[in-house]
Amino acid sequence: MTILIVGLGFVGLTTALGFADKGFQVFGYDSNRTHSDKIHSGEVPFVEPGLPEALGRNLGANFKVVENMDEFTAKADIVFLCVGTPCDESGRADLNDLKSGIDSIADKVNAEGLLVIKSTVPPGTTQKEIIPYVRTHGLKASVAVNPEFLREGWCWSDFTKPDRIVCGIDEGRVIARTLLSELYAPFDAPMHFVTPNTAEFIKYLSNSLLANLISFSNEMAGIAVAAGDVSLGEAFKILHEDNRLSGAGINSYIYPGCGYGGYCLPKDTTALIQSAKSNGFEANILQEVVTLNESMPRLTAEKIIRKTKDKTDKIGILGLSFKPNSDDVRYSPAAKIIEQLLVFGYQNIYVYDPVANDKFKEYYKFPLHYCPTKEDVCSICSVVALVTIWREFKGINKIYPHIVWEDCRYFL
Ligand SMILES: NC(=O)c1ccc[n+]([C@@H]2O[C@H](COP(=O)([O-])OP(=O)(O)OC[C@H]3O[C@@H](n4cnc5c(N)ncnc54)[C@H](O)[C@@H]3O)[C@@H](O)[C@H]2O)c1
Which of 82, 264, 371, 381 is catalytic? Predict the structure, then answer.
């Protein structure tokens, strides 16, 4: 079986190496040449535990990088589309990368083969938009939906030890079922074959629930702060001891903080609201989840500011990536908080992240002081905010008791 993966980001590179590790012949293509050149030379372009080793094992053997689609002269049996699906200006899922991915592989798929949408798209998208688009290219291959549930920071373990595999296929598409069953046979997880709309919906069901839990926790934190004298971290940790929650692995989402960020939850909640609206349904709860989340950076910046004497104070920010174990800074809460501080006129901001300093600097172009260590931040600043819960920050407030701390994650 020849597998072609289009888009070698967090999802695509993990998928490619995951299948290569199981012995399949995998080719990977990414239209960003700098990114694909790095992979081609054996470097994973982002921080993700387990991927460098998997790339080392498979590059040049089971996994090959295609630098230009013209050089891929074979016909793939399965093509996975793993490109980004950001929100457009109206909040809808933007399908342009998916469509250009389809353009590039139009003559590269076996007629008896399968095109798999792994990118996250709202319910109904594959049936209503992708399949008609694929057919205009004369592509005869079957089309399936196979949403991905991995978490950044845990991509490799989540992909190689999935808790469920969801495949959306049209009834009667024997080829899709056969090929996907063969491909996922080495993975020890329940496989569910559902309709394409159901598969797409399951992904949003999952991400919307997680976003709900985070905004619910932040709303409860607001209620507690208004009431006064509530030990919030303690309250949530005691909640987690409830037998219905303990050990469920979901407690990191049932915890207050400074709002959800990252590449998925913000865009997926917004896209689902827009998709529901275009189908005539108002997703009111989800809209409130988003509204509350969007207010969190300003509320957090105000909390930090209340701890300063004036705008000349030196403020420290510990953590820039949207979560620990990752250098992904897209939609990072730290960026939104810093943006607010700058808007409020605070110019002396000193930041540090164990892995994301360079990416943050390149991505946001904020006028910040980037510090090589957390100790530099703590020796310079009078007020320091803990924004990302990297392990190495645990208890740092005890080492620097003279600093006024704002523990945005109730973590210290
Ligand atoms: N990141 C996650 O944690 C995660 C988890 C589950 C699902 N998803 C979904 O998976 C999809 C991909 O997410 P990601 O985080 O891997 O994105 P990403 O931005 O890390 O990677 C996407 C890659 O696709 C490439 N690309 C764009 N258009 C292309 C084209 N026409 N041809 C070839 N390559 C192209 C980009 O250069 C980029 O490297 C999204 O729909 C996302 O919502 C992401």
Answer: 264
